[in-house]
Design brief:
Elements: E1 2-6, E2 17-21, E3 30-39, H1 42-49, E4 65-73, E5 85-89, E6 99-103, E7 107-109, H2 116-136, E8 144-147, H3 155-165, E9 168-173, H4 176-184, E10 189-192, H5 198-205, E11 211-216, H6 223-229, E12 230-238, H7 251-255, E13 260-263, H8 267-272, H9 274-290, E14 297-302, H10 306-314, E15 321-325
Parallel strand pairs: 8-9, 8-11, 9-10, 11-12, 12-13, 14-15
Antiparallel strand pairs: 1-2, 3-4, 3-6, 3-15, 4-5, 5-7
Helix pairs in contact: 2-3, 2-9, 5-6
């Protein structure tokens, strides 16, 4: 028996329960993992609330990203062996546990140059950032982009990466503390959206030209303004709906400026092209080793206190990445 967090019913952070669970031997194509750290993703909150379209049947163990040591491999597994340190990002839940079973093709090797805790904090959000700036809208030197929630778990990585490429990054944040972090992470301009109209500021910064792309994980509260910030032919890239789903898009909203709209997801790698996922993970870890990406593990909680971590992320009291550390570590 090992310990894990279980969700017996949908609701607030208080529904998360610390319980004993059985972890079976790995089957064909599976591995057993002793976890070093588990990343916390806002999708975990959506699922706990029962709001996400992929919310698992109750009861379940949440968690979609982490890193650990392989302790057993099932038949047919050749991609890793016992003793390997691997990380994973997957919509296959089960991460909030001291040990877990995982499909082997969801795991990527963690190089010795990267701390497993950093790998757990980085893998899901980092691959999401990779999708956003390479697939959703390909960021190039000279582009100007707007990143909402620039101090958040994905936002800070997008800012660092896009800045390193040579783009001008404008970030929106809620507090002065988050503004300082956003500046450190490559934002040339930071907008405190509670104190300023972000559309007016963006148009002022860009001399009324607008931005090439908006990366928006907020949703309903920022949608109309985000469209207004785009230049002719600009791209709206959604990757989250923290404030809820916006009203349906009307054709004229994008036709007036010949805009592009997309919702980019890590599923592009995890569900569609896992070879591309492994290549993207290698690039991600290489950029960490080179110092291009600085992993901000700003909040660590014991796994047994996952409810406290959920409360913090749900009330937007966190910046950077949040990780859960198994209580036996």
């Amino acid at each position: 028996m090992v310990k894990a967090i279980r969700v017996p019913e949908h609701g607030g952070p208080e529904v998360l329960k610390w319980e004993d669970v059985e972890v079976p031997d790995p089957k064909e194509g599976e591995i057993r993992l002793k976890q070093k750290a588990i990343g916390l993703n806002f999708l975990d909150v959506y699922m706990r609330q029962g709001l996400h379209n992929t919310s698992p049947p109750l009861p379940y163990t949440p968690g979609m990203e982490g890193a650990g040591v392989v302790t057993a491999v099932g038949p047919g597994v050749t991609s890793c062996k016992v003793g390997d340190v691997v990380a994973y990002a997957s919509l296959q839940v089960g991460g909030y546990a001291q040990e877990r079973i995982l499909a082997a093709d969801q795991a990527v090797p963690v190089p010795s140059s990267v701390d497993p805790v950093e790998a757990a904090a980085l893998i899901f959000k980092g691959l999401t950032a990779h999708v956003l700036i390479h697939k959703g809208f390909k960021v190039e030197r000279g582009h100007t982009i707007l990143v909402h929630a620039a101090a958040g778990g994905v936002g800070y990585l997008v800012c660092q990466w896009a800045s390193a490429i040579g783009a001008t990054v404008i970030g929106t944040v809620s507090t002065k503390e988050k503004a300082e972090q956003a500046k450190e992470d490559g934002c040339e301009h930071v907008i405190l959206y509670k104190d300023e109209d972000f559309v007016e500021r963006v148009m002022e910064i860009t001399s009324n030209k607008g931005v090439d792309a908006v990366y928006d994980s907020v949703g309903k509260d920022t949608f109309e303004g985000s469209l207004a910030c785009l230049k002719f032919g600009g791209s709206m890239v959604h990757f989250g709906l923290a404030s809820g789903e916006p009203e349906p898009i009307r054709v004229f909203q994008i036709a007036l400026k010949s805009l592009n709209y997309t919702f980019s997801s890590i599923a592009h790698y995890t569900d569609v092209d896992r070879d591309a996922m492994r290549v993207a993970a290698e690039e991600l870890f290489e950029n960490v080793a080179k110092g291009v990406l600085r992993v901000r593990v700003n909040h660590k909680y014991p796994l047994s206190l996952a409810s406290q971590a959920h409360a913090a992320i749900e009330t937007r009291k966190t910046t950077g990445s949040v990780v859960l550390i198994p209580d036996d570590e």
